[in-house]
Amino acid sequence: MVKRFIVFFSLLFIVSLVSAKGLSSRVDRMQVGLGEQVELTVTLSGVRGQQPDTRELLKNFSIDRQSHSTSMQVINGVVSQEARWTFLISPNRKGKLVIPTLKVGRFSSDPIEITVTDMPVAQSTSDDVLMEVELSPENPYVNSQLAYIQRLYFSRPLVDSASISKPKLSKGDADIQQWGASDPRYVTHNNRPYQLIERYYLIYPRKSGTLEFEPSVFSGSLASSRQRDNFQMNGFRRGTRVNAYSEKASVEIKEKPASFTAENWLPASRVTLSMNFSQPIESLSVGEPVTVTIALIAEGLKAEVLPEVVLDLPDTVKSYPEKPAFQTDKVTNGMVGLRQEKIVLIANEAGEYQIPEVTIPWWSTSEDKLMEAKLDAFTLKVTGGVMAPQAISKFSSQADLEKDTAEDEQKNSEATKSNQEEAGTDAAAIIQTNKFSAVKFYEENKTEILTGAILSIGLSLISFLVWRRRKAHLNSNDYKQQVEITSSIKAVEAACNKNNLASAVAALPVWAAKVGIYPATLAGIESAGNEQLQLAIQELTAANYSPNPEAWSGKSLLAAVKQYSKTSKFTSADETGLAPLHPM
Fold it and tell me: How many CB atoms are located within 10 Å of the residue 350 CB?
């Protein structure tokens, strides 16, 4: 009996050796486009062995992913075993490329030649997966915002790592920026049920003419038919590899209209200008600083392209601008750019100063016409005498201070030189005559002169102490913080009074940071623990995503902000050293 078993297993072992077929390689496609992937399957039949040596393969290809599996079967007494390695590879260049001979032990596979072209080759497109793209609007202007939307439809679950190529230009020049993506959702397309995933990109054409994109490519695997009712992603199940390709997308980019003659070309769907002051400008004193904050907001443009807003000021009003702040945020319809200017104004003399209106020309991409964003004219009413130069030196930059000092010294030098030339040789005689008059006058009025000198010194000392105390107050953190808080409230107030939704959205995070709300975002403000403020933010958010944002009223938001500002402990969120993850 034992001998029979030995003979049986010996014959079984011999049959298994005879059934060995060695090492083989195959690919799922023989022609691909540069940037596409090829699935290479290497099979070792009948024996066990280590992974094939892929060093030669890496000379012309990149291995993006790989997997390994083994199996064993006994059929009619015949044992067969198989090891399989699957490589997802990408060609590094175009042309005729050879997948080299791969070796495992004494076994070798045959080489495989594939063709790599510039453009994708739609060999395995299936009705179960579709790739489409859309460009909007159809006739954009140079430098304006253009939406590039990729849509992937799939009727069976994705069961392997999948990828969608990024937009790639085949003609033209543009700045391409990824904007976001949607979650999968069920739709009906071409009378069939699909799941849909969308990816969004923003395109800013740099020059006019044709802007053409190569086809967008999807590479991945779909579940088998028995798995089609389960739309859960599962990386451990194998499926059918597919590739889907969109059509080429192109659009004609228009040059800016000849009727637009302004220096800065601003194609946008909406542009607004707003301004607020750190304190009332109807009752200023000579030498009293007031900070004006100007916000230029453009929907459809990035902040970095927005121009400087310049005020036309008289010579008696000094201006000290801070470094402008730029902020670009994502909203429902794309990007919104904000440029914020802060300028400290100081009047040297009393009077009423009329500051003319400021206009920023821009081109409406929605109405296709020239429009203007405006800042209304305003009046600075200043009371008091003439301000001493040294009282405002602390607001000047070092360069301004040196420039003013040099100008004053030059004027004094010129005046002295002129007086000397006019006096000529008679100066000595005049000095000699006045010398005797001065001595006589001093002797007759000695008491009054000394008393006056003492009073003058006393008044100068008091003035110095008052000035130093005021300087310390202006330099204190409490005063600076209160000025910033007041300024931020004024910005919100200006937006609310005008029912300007975009300006309110831009001003609220600044105010929140100053009153200690963290994170300084709309979500952070809503969760700050104030019911009135929470309701106002919910109303603002609903209007912001409404197709009719002009219907928003800022009355309730302004009341909530003022009420919260009175009761809050003013601690700037900047002191935490943390920045909000999503500023808007």
Answer: 16
- Distance of alpha carbon 475 from alpha carbon 456, whole angstroms: 28
Does residue 183 form part of some domain? yes
Report which residue type is found at 347.
Answer: A
Is residue 162 within 8 A of residue 219, CB to CB? The reply is: yes
Answer yes or no: is 429 within a domain: no
Domain end point (choices 375, 390, 405): 390
Q: Looking at 67-81, 183-197, 214-228, 458-472, which range is the least confident one?
A: 458-472
Measured CA to CA, the distance from residue 89 to residue 37 in angstroms comes to 6
Gap between the Cα atoms of 260 and 243, Å rounded: 46
Contact 102, 54 (CB under 8 A): yes
- Mark whether 105 and 201 lie in a shared domain: no
Q: Is 534 helix (H, G, I), strand (E, B) or coil?
A: helix
Q: Which residue has the tokens 């800065």?
A: 264
Domain that holds residue 27: 18-117
How far is Cα 248 from Cα 239, in angstroms, rounded to an integer? Answer: 28
Tokens of 533: 């403020």
Residue with tokens 């004193």, as numbered in its chain: 285
Rounded CA separation 165/167 (Å): 7
Beta pairing class for 358-364 and 267-268: parallel
Whether 113 and 133 share a structural domain: no
With tokens 């033209």, the residue in question is 172
Q: Phi first, then psi: give them for residue 97, nearest 5 degrees.
A: -115, 145
pLDDT digits (tens, 9 = 90+) for 451-473: 656 666 766 666 666 666 766 66
Q: Is the pLDDT of residue 190 over 70?
A: yes
Q: Tell me the Ramachandran region of residue 35: left when phi exceeds 0, alpha when psi lies from -120 to 50, beta otherwise.
A: left
CB 394: neighbour CB atoms within 10 A? 12
CB atoms within 10 A of CB 206: 12
Sign of the dihedral defined by the CA atoms of residues 297, 298, 301, 306, in that order = negative
The answer to whether the CB of 410 falls within 8 A of the CB of 418 is no
What is Dmax (Cα atoms) for the chain?
Answer: 153
Which residues contact residue 68 at a Cβ distance below 8 angstroms, ignoring those fewer than 6 apart?
Answer: 51, 83, 84, 85, 86
Answer yes or no: is 427 within a domain: no
> Which pLDDT tens digit goes with each residue over 282-326?
989 998 999 999 999 999 999 999 999 999 999 999 999 999 999
Distant-in-sequence, close-in-space partners of 488: CB < 8 Å, separation ≥ 6? 507, 510, 511, 513, 514, 515
Measuring CA to CA, which residue among 97, 119, 114 is closest to residue 30? 114
CA distance 112 to 26: 8
Q: pTM score > 0.90 for this model?
A: no
